[in-house]
Amino acid sequence: MKREDLIQKWLDHNLTSDELEAFKQLEDYDDLVKLSNGMQHFKAPEYNTSEALNNVMQHINTSKQPPQKKWLSIAMSIAAVFVISFGIYFFTINQDTLVNTQLAEKTTIELPDASSVALNSLSEITFNTHKWNKKRTVDLKGEAFFKVEKGSSFNVNTVYGTVTVYGTQFNVKQRENYFEVICYEGLVGVTYKGKETKLHAGESFLLLNGKLIEKEKELKTQPSWLNNESYFKSMPYKEVIAEFERQYDVNFHVINLDSSQLFTGSFTHNNIENALKSITLPLHLTYKKTDNTITLKRE
Amino acid sequence: MPKPLHDNICDEILFTSLFEKHAKNLHNFLHYKFGEQLNPKDKVQEAFIKLWQNCGKIPSNKAKSFLFTTANNLMLNEAAHQKVVLKHQQIKPKHYTNESPDFVMEEQEYLQKLEKAIANLTEAQRTAFLLNRVEGKRFKEIAELLDISVKAVEKRIYGALKKLREDIKEL
């Protein structure tokens, strides 16, 4: 048997007694045995299996059973998802939708039942989409034109009063010391100080400085501002100026002028020069425009 | 492939038997491969804890390779390939006690040479050779432990022996 094979077999602890004898005859037998015995000095330290097992079991038992932990954490995460989604649901259900317009801005929005609202400049409307089926109510600050679909009663709340309607078109204008409702179609009820006034098509309700003012019948089918024009009939001049400021985002500086005098006329929202002429010429006023300030002066 | 008897090992009795079967081998394997300074005992414990945490995913016939791979990775994470030096132990086995001082001296020198020579072996050679010589394991057992063929074990061990003898002669 070859030397190499003998060594291999010796290494594998697989020598027969004959082979062992042959192996002992090898010239490097002593060398090999010496090396092999020397190796014993490199033995790994004694490993105490039962002690190590105790350590591991202790560790495992203090940190709970993994399968249960897994179920618990899954249950917890499912619960968390429910809690969060209910939270979001209740939060959004009570969350009102708010739409507002800035100076010189107009917008039209659709309400949940396809009723539409056109918002004039510097106005704000608030409503709740989720409760819309039960209660058609909007809160309004400023001026808006409503086209209401037929259905249950539709309320517009303003600080001056509530407007109730049943499928119609009407304009509500609520500004400082100013509250006007014009009905263009159908029937509108205006509740002011607990008293309801019914408005038929063409009729209007105007409250100026706390006083009710009678107006003649409206012949137009929709408010003029929807056509980018503000129309006034026998209105105090300061209301005209206030509307102008809202439409063009400018400030008026008025000198030597009685702002409560009445004005009849209109101005456009598209051209400030023409608009200024429209409101100054009839009263023989001069205007001077510097940046965003307009100075009005009586000649 | 035969279906394993247990498709998971989330059972304390089964886990304990696995521990008794593999812990010592794993410890020795780590010791010979990475040396003492990286604390193979701790790695064995960590590997078994990891095995328990993942017990639902591991069938019993995969446990051994999971343990060895995990412990090996734990070691590798810790030591970025520093050179392994296996220190020979100062406590001598009994049959040397009555030797002459000359012999003891020579013996010490020889062990120092051996220590250096072992440090020069490759990781694979060292692990296989020490398991074979020190733990007295047969090629087949080592092959199972390391998940390699018997032929490969043979090669590693014979190669290690050759290299050690050459190195010792040179030193």
UniProtKB/TrEMBL annotation, chain A:
Keyword match Membrane: yes
One protein family per Pfam: FecR_C
Keywords assigned by UniProt, alphabetized: Membrane, Transmembrane, Transmembrane helix
Residue ranges occupied by any Protein FecR C-terminal domain in the UniProt entry: 231-296
Residue ranges constituting the FecR protein domain according to the UniProt record: 99-188
UniProt superkingdom: Bacteria
Residues that span the membrane, as ranges: 71-91
Name of the protein: FecR family protein
TrEMBL record, chain B:
Keywords, comma-separated and alphabetical: DNA-binding, Sigma factor, Transcription, Transcription regulation
Family matches, as InterPro entries: RNA_pol_sigma-70-like, RNA_pol_sigma-70_dom, RNA_pol_sigma70_r2, RNA_pol_sigma70_r4_t2, RNA_pol_sigma_r2, RNA_pol_sigma_r3/r4-like, WH-like_DNA-bd_sf
Pfam family, one: Sigma70_r4_2
Native species: Meridianimaribacter flavus
Domain RNA polymerase sigma factor 70 region 4 type: 112-164
Family indicated by similarity: Belongs to the sigma-70 factor family. ECF subfamily.
Protein name (Swiss-Prot/TrEMBL): RNA polymerase sigma-70 factor (ECF subfamily)
Highest taxon above the source species: Bacteria
Residues covered by the RNA polymerase sigma-70 region domain: 18-82
Entry keyword annotation includes Endoplasmic reticulum: no
